[in-house]
Design brief:
By secondary structure, the chain is of the alpha/beta class. Helices cover about 35% and strands about 10% of the residues. It is globular, with a radius of gyration of 19 Å. The two termini are about 35 Å apart. The structure holds zinc ion.
Length: about 375
């Protein structure tokens, strides 16, 4: 590890690892922002319930009290560069299913671009496409994609497991599951994934499955009986159900289950339907519920989920989400590599430009830091009370 790190550091110093590939679906820019040398110590959520360096108080009127006994998985300083925690970046899909090398050095979210964008952490989904194996993805696929994520992390000096120290030059990698229909085979299997580190679990992707109806499904039904049991298992194991891609009925079905576990409702990568009518976006009522439960909705930069693709449109989306859910309840879930990133923020290195645009639009530094990282870290730290 040490020799690999120093070799990579040398390579970085020589500019050898800078992204030069243009082969991906989105244009990638050279990393440009200089990274500071601030060292950010890490503490796992389970390590110390009192070591939080983050303010945990909710300020918006729609917020439920946010549990203050949870230490965030990473402690970020209140000053210096604004670090980003991105709840959804589909790099593993590109590598596992689309033939991209494990170096992942192309596309809009290469490790070099994540560093240039001041990322502190990223959530890599184990995305299980509905259409593989004659439309029957299997639990074994989830294991295989998890191994791919481990391989991507091992390949890159900048990427570290969430238990490692995250300094200005590293990005912690958390894991989620997107489209967990395969677990209908045996819902008990989700336990070992959550115990291994999967934090967010989305029961569905684009199509309805045996666990739930999808936002873009044919029937768009709610959680099935098995799906409800599955969500209970996710919470009991310490994970959080991800409502991005879930149908509106499924969202309603989840509310009492989440309440039972004192769990925040999280949409890792969904915008506001009031600004763009796409079914993948959240209604104002859903955004309020997310706020009331202490959850977050992650801003999605996919062009088709925004009302306009320029920076003003992105800022307007954030403004609406904040006005509706509360400033403690909006995060980032860019969908880089999964969607088509909007031209205004075409890759991960442009996140600081979004921070600047939000400040220019009147958001305080404190609020931008919440949206960029602290709200996400709070839900990443969640554990069931019982
Ligand atoms: Zn998605």
């Amino acid at each position: 590890m040490t020799s690999r790190r120093s070799l990579a550091g040398l390579a970085l110093a020589l500019g050898l690892l800078a992204c030069t590939s243009r082969g991906g679906p989105h244009a990638a820019a050279e990393p440009s922002a200089a990274l500071s040398s601030v060292v950010v110590p890490s503490s796992r959520a389970s390590a110390s319930p009192t070591s939080s360096a983050l303010p945990m108080t909710a300020s918006s009127s729609s917020s439920a009290p946010v549990r203050s006994d949870l230490a965030p998985p990473l402690a970020l300083p209140d000053d210096g560069p604004i670090r980003a925690v991105d709840l959804h970046v589909d790099t593993p899909w590109r590598v596992h299913f689309k033939g991209r090398p494990k170096s992942a050095d192309e596309g809009p979210a290469t490790p070099a671009l994540l560093r240039a964008g001041q990322y502190a952490a990223v959530v890599y989904p184990i995305y299980l496409p509905d259409y593989i194996h004659d439309d029957h993805p299997a639990i074994a696929d989830a294991d295989a994609v998890y191994a791919t994520i481990d391989a991507i992390v091992a390949e890159h000096e900048a990427l570290v497991p969430p238990s490692a120290t995250v300094d200005a030059d590293s990005v912690a990698v958390f894991v989620s599951i997107e489209g967990a229909g395969a677990f209908a085979e045996d819902i008990t299997q989700i336990d070992r994934f959550v115990k291994r580190g999967v934090k967010f679990v989305g029961p569905v992707h684009a199509r309805d499955n045996r666990l739930a109806g999808a936002a873009t499904g044919k029937k768009r039904g709610g959680l099935t009986t098995l799906g409800k049991q599955f969500c209970e298992r996710v919470y009991a194991a310490g994970g959080l159900v991800d409502v991005s891609h879930l149908s509106d009925t499924g969202f309603e079905d989840l509310r009492p289950i989440a309440k039972n576990f004192g769990a925040p409702i999280v949409a890792t990568h969904s915008n506001a339907r009031a600004k763009n009518k796409h079914r993948r976006n959240l209604t104002d009522k859903q955004l309020r519920v997310i706020g009331e439960t202490g959850g977050v909705a992650g801003l999605n930069l996919h062009r088709g989920f925004l009302d306009s693709g320029d920076m003003a449109g992105v800022v307007a989306m954030v403004r609406h989400m904040v006005a509706t859910a509360g400033v403690e309840h909006v995060a980032l879930g860019t969908d880089f590599e999964g969607g088509s990133a909007t031209e205004a923020i075409k890759d991960a290195s442009k996140l600081p430009a979004l921070a600047e645009a939000l400040k220019k639009a009147g958001f305080s530094d404190v609020d931008v830091r919440k949206i960029f990282a602290k709200n996400a870290l709070r839900v990443l730290a969640w554990k069931p009370a019982k």
